[in-house]
From TrEMBL:
It comes from Sinorhizobium americanum. Catalyzes the conversion of 3-dehydroshikimate to protocatechuate (3,4-dihydroxybenzoate), a common intermediate of quinate and shikimate degradation pathways. The keyword Metal-binding applies. PROSITE patterns: VOC (PS51819). This is 3-dehydroshikimate dehydratase. Keywords: Lyase, Metal-binding. GO terms for biological process: 3,4-dihydroxybenzoate biosynthetic process. Its cofactor is a divalent metal cation.
């Protein structure tokens, strides 16, 4: 599978873009005309730069307002085309994109357009060049790839072909299976882009909100399946117009783009096994059975404070690492690990971020296969020295540079707690509080990283993403999306912070980077758990009494239930599937906190309650300007 990306998709000058594209692993690059015009080097030098980076110019674009022009404009368009042909030959590329005409002066008519392209094909052929025609979704007369194909078909010239763009087809809801009958040799290049579903002007939507395949809501996989069914084996090229990407890190965006194409190719290959799509072999997306553990790094002093807090949740000290300063606290199927080593990655993470949940482990069917798929998708593997009696646990770098470990039941990893740890007797065990599993892990990231990590998780794990939700903070908006599987054994909430005044933004600023900001534990009886927590000395996050008056009226709750909620500071929500109960701890450190939930069929995450618990949580933060102690 040949991969390419348009320079317009990335930030920086042309040399910055080429460097990022090459580093990410692409085979080719589309040179967007404005990027070239803003660059000081000659066309010949730009072509040399591209080749020195190990790339090929897959396309030069765009050439606008060509077909169907009346005289004298028609003559002028052919003169412009000849100038572009000169430029292409100096650059060292043979393909130019002509997009459908949007000029008010353009005349309609399939045959008129076909005649123009036939003549242009003759001129291109004399130079050994090719011309691809693309139907813009907002074209004046041609805005459907089926009409563009009919023009190409009637032009009947070997140097004239079709360019397909997923956005232009899918934004107009055009039937993608119409592509399957197009001869593969007449498809000169395929451009791919996804986008969130937004009801707005097509041009504005396209110019500002495109994103990588898999990051939006359009059926790009179905589109690509139709393309692959033709036998097309040319470039799959990303053309992404996105304001956020234009201001982002070119290297990171390029890596996302390459990952999106590899993931897309893998999806198509699995959906259309009879199609020979040259995609790297990799294991399928991974089924996650649950969160095996969450690991904190801390100093010895801060570890004592953290231990005291989690004991109030009913966790007991269960095991000690045989050779390292690492303890395991357990309740139900929840394992919390506290690492106070003074060397290694955990310590390095502590020195940067302070006490934090820097790693978590996922229980999967096959840990080695999971790591293999992660590597194929461009994830960064993690390894460090393995001591005597320790297992080599597959791991990759995740959000904020933290770690994700993979455990399974089919290898010796199933016995990691017995092999690496020895049981200990807790001298002062707290009473268990009925916590069963980790319901979800909440990670806070910069808003511009949100799409990156959504793609990261959904391409690796057998999960889906929920629609984006606006979380209301008294100081701003936090964008939130969830990656979850159908079984409910994995739920990862991703919260994108846009300013440091929100609780999420403050967490990123004070801990120097993205990471896990809160853990949610599940219980089968929130009221029994609340009583057990109180008996253990737990102090829940106080919620305003005004909240409960509103909840009673809004949901028509029984007064007795409302009093029980108020007495334990439990938040309440309801959806079409059932009820939801939430209980929070105050913040720990620089904005980290714990949540306990009970789901009675409810499928959401209590977004309606966010503003109330955030307002309460912020009261426990260290005042701005007050130094850490």
């Amino acid at each position: 599978m040949k991969t390419s990306i348009a320079t317009v998709s990335l930030s920086g000058d042309l040399s910055d873009k080429l460097r990022a594209i090459a580093k990410a692993g692409f085979d080719g690059v589309e040179i967007f005309e404005n990027d070239f015009l803003a660059f000081d080097e000659s066309p010949r030098e730009v072509g040399r730069m591209v080749r020195d980076f190990g790339l090929e110019i897959s396309l030069f674009q765009p050439f606008r307002d060509f077909e169907g022009m009346p005289e004298p404009l028609r003559t002028r368009t052919f003169d412009r085309a000849e100038r572009k042909f000169d430029l292409m030959q100096e650059l060292g590329t043979d393909l130019v994109l002509v997009c459908s005409n949007v000029s008010p002066a353009a005349l309609g008519g399939i045959d008129r357009a076909a005649a123009d392209f036939r003549e242009l094909g003759e001129r291109a052929a004399r130079r050994g060049l090719r011309v691809g025609y693309e139907a813009l979704a907002w074209g004046r007369h041609i805005h459907d790839h089926r009409d563009a194909w009919e023009i190409v078909r009637r032009a009947d010239h070997p140097n004239i072909g079709l360019i397909l763009d997923s956005f232009h087809t899918l934004s107009r809801k055009i039937e993608v299976n119409s592509i399957r009958s197009i001869p593969k040799e007449k498809i000169f290049i395929v451009q791919l882009a996804d986008a969130p579903l937004i009801d707005m002007d097509l041009l504005y939507w396209s110019r500002h909100f495109r994103n990588m395949p898999g990051e939006g809501d359009l059926p790009v996989t179905e589109f690509t399946r139709a393309v692959a069914a033709t036998g097309y084996d040319g470039y799959l090229s990303l053309e992404i117009f996105n304001d956020q990407f234009r201001g982002g890190n070119a290297n990171a965006i390029a890596v996302d783009g390459y990952r999106s194409l590899i993931y897309l190719g893998d999806q198509v290959k699995r959906a259309e096994p009879d199609i020979r799509l040259p995609v790297p072999d990799m294991p399928p997306r991974v089924d996650v059975k649950g969160v095996a553990f969450v690991e904190f790094t801390a100093s010895e002093e801060e570890a004592g404070e953290l231990e005291a807090l989690i004991r109030t949740f009913g966790f007991r000290k269960a095991a000690r690492h045989r050779t390292k300063q690492v303890l395991v606290y357990r309740q139900g199927a929840v394992n919390l690990v506290i690492n106070t080593e003074r060397e290694g990655f955990a310590n390095a993470s502590y020195l940067v971020h302070g006490t934090s949940a820097y790693a978590f482990g996922l229980s999967v069917d096959d840990a080695a296969a999971t790591a293999e798929r992660a590597r194929a998708l461009g994830a960064e593997p993690f390894e460090q020295a393995v001591g005597p009696g320790e297992l080599k646990v597959p791991a990759i770098r995740g959000v904020g540079g933290g770690l994700i470990y993979f455990l399974d039941d089919k290898s010796e990893l199933a016995k990691i707690w017995e092999i690496e740890f020895e049981p200990v007797t807790d001298g002062a065990p707290a009473a268990p509080a009925g916590l069963t599993v980790i319901d979800h892990v909440a990670q806070t990231v910069k808003y511009e990283e949100l799409l990156t990590w959504l793609l990261f998780y959904t391409s690796l794990l057998d999960t889906k993403k929920t629609p984006m939700v606006d979380i209301i903070d008294p100081a701003g908006i936090v964008r939130s999306q969830v990656v979850e599987n159908n079984a409910g054994t994995l739920r990862l909430t991703l919260n994108g912070a846009e300013n440091r005044n929100t609780l999420a933004g403050r967490f990123i600023a004070e801990t120097f980077g993205s990471g896990v900001q809160h853990l949610a534990f599940a219980t089968d009886d929130i009221f029994a758990t609340a009583q057990a927590l109180r008996a253990n000395g737990f102090k829940s996050l106080p919620i305003s009494p005004n909240y409960y008056d509103d909840v009673e009226a809004r949901f028509g709750l029984d007064a007795e239930l409302v009093e029980r909620l108020k007495a334990e500071n439990i938040l309440y929500d309801r959806d079409d599937h059932g009820e939801f109960f939430q209980l929070y701890s105050p913040t720990y450190g620089e904005g980290f906190f714990f949540e306990i939930i009970e789901r009675r069929g409810y499928r959401g995450y209590g977004a309606a309650n966010a503003i109330f618990r955030i307002a309460a949580l912020k009261k426990y933060l260290r005042p701005e300007g007050l130094p850490k102690v």
